[in-house]
Amino acid sequence: MKEILDIKTVHQCNCCLGCQTLHPLASVIRLDDHTDVKQHGIRFDFYTVLLIENSNGDCCCCGRKSYDFSYATMVFLPPEQTFDMTRRRVLPQRGWLLAFHPDLLYGTSLKESIGHYTFFHYRKEEALHLSAREKDKITECLQEMDSELHHPIDRHSQILISRYIELLLDYCTRFYERQFITRENKNKLLIRQADNLLEKYISSGTLRNGTFPTAQYCAEQLKLSPHYFEDLLKFETGKTLTEYFHFKRLEAAKQMLAEQGDTPAAISSLLGFSSVQQFCLWFKRITGSYPNEYRSLQN
Known about the structure:
299 residues; alpha+beta; Jelly Rolls; Arc Repressor Mutant, subunit A; 2 domains; 5-stranded antiparallel β-sheet
């Protein structure tokens, strides 16, 4: 069984990495070649953001491909998640580590919005890869935060530190969207695979049991994390999984009516509706025609 270094507090993190504790709930740590963790993995009981400066193949394990930028890589860890870079090394040789405890967020706007930053739930292989300009911007945010941490703690410290963190996370949201654009060809292939997956799910008759595909199910088939899959689908199609699956069900219903000659009752059963009446009303609400009317118009 692998030995895991379990770090409970920000102060313990600072001690392990040879840094002074300036604030008990937040820290910005510069990683360098002297940062060495002997265990096979590390688990932080708080939010952690890693900025990995790419050198010596450090980011080969973080999903970077030829179509990605290669100036730096970012990984986001929620509390209690275990991380390691490679079998040889737990933390990167060079970069930055931002640590902030959930208690820091109480009474701040970030407390309400932290759940919107879904990249904290991405897999390590779904990391963010930065251009030179993006790397400079993130480094600037970290340096500004570090400067605030060196200021004596007063009643403004918590708000200012949390705002710097929120600003950094907002930049990361922008940069992830840019990464979706630069990965356009790869992402369109993933969407086609998702289309095939949902079409097979419909044709298999699984919907008769009232069992709808979940993000977890789709992501596992595509070898993605559920949050990454949902964010990718939303970015590429503008729809949530529920909305997109209803769209696929409608496509299937239209095809069965126009090309296969199935009855509304048979289609209703295959698509998981509780009754043919429910199916007909659903179809009418979306298309403006009842199923039999739609078939007549198509023919």
